[in-house]
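ok so I'm stuck.
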Amino acid sequence: MAMGTSQLKARIRVNSAKVKRAQKVLGAKTETEAIERALDLVIADAESNRLVLKANERFFRSGVEVKDVYGKLDR
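replied:
not stuck anymore, here's the structure
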């Protein structure tokens, strides 16, 4: 969680059972901490997906030939 960033005080409607479950799974002491951690995970996951997609695109553009030495890809 980034410290020193601006904060938004908002009233939102969320499923309390989901927040409590996330709080337990994430080991957060408060509901706010659980929501912050969950948002951090979503942001990190999106960044990871973006980087994987970029690497895949670079790989395919490189023209590397992949050989199916086990004959599993022709199915």
